[in-house]
Design brief:
CATH architecture: 3-Layer(aba) Sandwich
Shape: globular
Largest sheet: 6 strands, parallel
Helix content: 25-40%
Structural class: alpha/beta
Distance between the termini: 38 Å
CATH class: Alpha Beta
Order of helices and strands: EHEHEHEHEHEEHEEEHEEHH
CATH superfamily: NAD(P)-binding Rossmann-like Domain
CATH topology: Rossmann fold
Amino acid sequence: MRIAVAGGTGMVGHHVTASAQQAGHEVVVLSRSRGVDVLSGEGLAEALAGVDVVIDTANPDTVEEGPATEFFTQEATALQRAGSETGVRHIVTLSIVGIDKTSSFGYYNAKLAQERAAAAGPVPSTVMRATQFYELPGQLIGLTRQDSQAQVLDLGRCQPVAARTVGEVLVEVAEGTPAGRAPDLAGPEQANLVALGQAFVEHRHAAIELHPIEVGIPAGAMLPESGARIQGPTFEEWLASDDAAALPL
């Protein structure tokens, strides 16, 4: 199978690429560095020639609702249009568990808009929602750190999962038939992202004080519902992995 990966160099996308290649698939990474601009459509039809399935893990460099919505809808629409023109038979879109349970976080509203745009085109599609990644607290610490201070989103109780696991399961979904919605994906344990961030800092022996960023998420909104796919590793297992060690701090 020939699989195109939008966002193929990102946090989840590079795991999708590796998993697809390990499974014997031919992979096309859709990125500007390879002459493909998914937003404008430049080079997209050429890149999708002969592609069977597109896996969309692309992400904007902002969480502001307006710009993020524009990015997601434009990108999803471009993939549908070019995919239809080139014979793509399935588009798989990564989304987030719980985004339909709150309107207080603009980025989640943007992801809902992406889901709608992905389902609106002529190419059969599947949305797979995953919980927050184990990598997220470490990413936020790296982005917000000022000397010994940093910030981490407080989403209440959630059930995070490893980005590598998300990549592997997305490839499984791509190998199947279009389903509209795949089962949600979550890790094996409930946790709080701020507490995980603290565990990450302590594991790296860094003296960093964490401050929660309150975004007004309703209690339990980020937890998977009945029927979700639960898959490891645990956070402690992930923390001891090369994936955790690769995160800058």
